[in-house]
Design goal:
This protein is an alpha/beta fold and about 425 residues long. It is built from 13 helices and 20 strands. Strands 1, 2, 8, 9, 10, 11, 12 and 20 form an 8-stranded mixed β-sheet that branches. The protein is globular and about 70 Å long. Bound molecules: flavin-adenine dinucleotide.
């Protein structure tokens, strides 16, 4: 803001998007810069974005997370400490991939599958040289490739051909196990956002940064101005041009387009008779197919099944709707527990993240060669348009605590830029 410290603007900072990153940034700015006026604008009708918990009478105090559910790297995850501060309970039952209970046969086939998966990830993690896609690391003809493909989609939300080995190898959620919040990860993030001045149902459509000292923000509810803007919307929203930057910011849009959102959807099924399934046990739908669901039976003991679909399968089931997803899950559960299990189950809730108008998917992956674009996306423009969100994190992308960290980092940069201009 050369020659003008922005006194004509209505707000010091406008934050676009009230997901984990936007809320974290707002709370950080409130703490370090109580002198600044901050406004959070959210297009949807609730706080949280991809963090969204819903209640179910049968589930008691357990909430169902339609979006993020696991506090990855839980001991060092910022949200773990915040859960305590806002009065929520963190459950330490181990995750299925970390020693938790799993429904698995203990036969030669299962051992062979485990060995093949182990070999695949070893090849992946020791890959050197040019970046390539995750499918390149498959051993052609290996009979366990289907299962490896399924696991790949749960991790990135995309089929192996689409995502980068280098980006996968950079992923590091931080030390610590994976825990859950009994009342929901979504509840936690929303609660943390409560003290922030927020306007819901306000969709930003244009950010005009032609003038020194003032950024004009157009929304579906009228206009306002700010000295600085922090953009935290998903890469799919950015790449679709839903917010027009004037002048344009092609380097941001191009980066976002090559860091698209993969898709993972959850289907929650009510379980009429609790005794029909074991508590807090994990099951993979099929050990041979790539298009298969993964199931958390009675998470935290609740009378529900959480089915998780990812990649192309999730796109198909989301498009076809709840009943199709229920039929798919019913078949996979019936194969393990017998046909009568279907009678115990009914649909409680299902996410549809690809169709969510202000989000458009689940978590970002990098196309081969695009991992470095995460830092390009995160870099401020002109020291007054800042960016945050899970996709901006080099190693904790695709997580809610990664989103938190990018929000805090952007708030600190914003503070630095305001201090220099004061
Ligand atoms: C099914 C699923 C499972 C997941 N599991 C986990 C997990 O176990 N652990 C984990 O750590 N992470 C998990 N994640 C990922 C995690 O939820 C996300 O990484 C994180 O919540 C992203 O936060 P964000 O602030 O970057 O983006 P968002 O949550 O997308 O926030 C951006 C906000 O911007 C708003 N917005 C968009 N456009 C506009 C506009 N024009 N004007 C105003 N507002 C706008 C959106 O409505 C949204 O609220 C999961 C996600 C999904 C979908």
């Amino acid at each position: 803001m050369p020659g003008d410290n922005g006194r004509g603007a209505e707000k010091d900072v406008v934050i676009i998007g009230a997901g984990a990153a936007g809320i974290a940034a707002a709370r950080r700015l409130q703490a370090i810069r109580p002198d600044l006026s901050i406004l959070l604008l959210e297009a949807g009708d609730r706080l949280g974005g991809r963090a969204w918990s819903v209640g179910l009478p049968e589930a008691g105090d357990i909430a169902l997370d339609l979006g993020c559910g696991w506090l990855h790297g839980a001991r060092t995850n910022a949200w773990t400490a915040i859960a305590g501060e806002v009065g929520l309970a963190v459950d330490h039952t181990p995750a299925p991939w970390n020693g938790g209970r799993r429904l698995q046969r203990d036969d030669a086939e299962t051992h062979a599958a485990r060995a093949a998966i182990g070999d695949y990830f070893e090849r992946l993690e020791s890959h050197e040289g040019d970046d390539t896609d995750l499918a390149e690391m498959l051993e052609p003809g290996n009979s366990w490739n289907g299962q490896i493909r399924a696991i790949g989609t749960y991790i990135t939300g995309a089929e192996l051909e689409r995502s980068s080995v280098l980006d996968y190898n950079r992923y590091d959620p931080g030390p610590g196990p994976d825990w859950r919040v009994r009342q929901g990860y979504g509840t936690l993030i929303c609660r943390y956002g409560r003290p922030v001045a927020t306007r819901l149902g306000v969709e930003v459509t244009r950010v005009n940064h032609r003038h020194a000292g003032r950024i004009d923000i157009q929304t579906n509810q009228g206009g306002l101005s700010a000295r600085a803007v922090l953009v935290t919307v998903s890469t799919n929203v950015l790449a679709a041009g839903k917010i027009v930057f004037d002048p344009p910011l092609p380097e941001k849009i191009e980066a976002a387009a090559r860091l698209p959102l993969g898709l993972a959807d959850k289907l929650f099924l009510r379980l009429a008779n609790q005794q029909a399934l074991p508590a807090d046990t994990h099951m993979l739908g099929s050990i041979s197919r790539g298009a298969t669901g993964t199931y958390q039976l009675r998470p935290l003991g609740a009378a529900v099944v959480e089915a998780y679909f990812a990649g192309d399968l999730a796109h198909d089931l989301e498009r076809e709707g709840k009943e199709a997803a229920f039929a798919f899950a019913g078949d996979e559960l019936a194969a393990a527990f017998g046909a009568d299990i279907r009678k115990e189950l009914s649909v409680a809730a299902m996410s549809a993240w690809a169709a969510a108008p202000h989000i458009g998917g689940s978590y970002s992956y990098a196309e081969p060669g695009a991992s470095d674009l995460r830092s390009r996306l995160a870099a401020p423009h002109d020291q007054r348009i800042f960016f945050a969100g899970e996709a901006c994190s080099r190693s904790r992308y695709s997580t809610a605590h990664g989103a938190y960290e990018t929000g805090v980092a952007a708030a600190d940069l914003l503070d630095g830029s305001f201090s220099r201009k004061a």
